[in-house]
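Re: your question about STAS domain-containing protein

S., sorry for the slow reply, the queue was backed up all week. Below is exactly what I fed in.
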Amino acid sequence: MEPMTDPISNGADMRWIELPPILDIAAAAPLADRLRAHRGAPLAIDASQVEKTGTQAVQVLLAASKSWKADEIDFRITSASEPFLASLELIGLSMDDFHEVEFALETNEQ
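Result:
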């Protein structure tokens, strides 16, 4: 997807990635490559089409969220499908684990 202006990221070019329906071990390495290509830019991940999620792909997404947090750049997962959310819950995670950047930045501003 093309970069677009997002008012939440203070007008910076928000980059968007659409996750594929199957996020298994075969999808983990290509996903990591796609994420690395956007390093340094605000990034939104559309998880609306995800039907199946493997732990390796979740690890890639968690590592990316930590990298963006370290860089103090906006990283978010949007429109998470029910199967994506159920997979996260099954391995003991929630959407909050990916969005701690936003919460941490809000805390630092106070």
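The first strand starts at residue 4 and ends at 5. DSSP finds four helices and six strands in the chain.

Happy to talk it through on Thursday.
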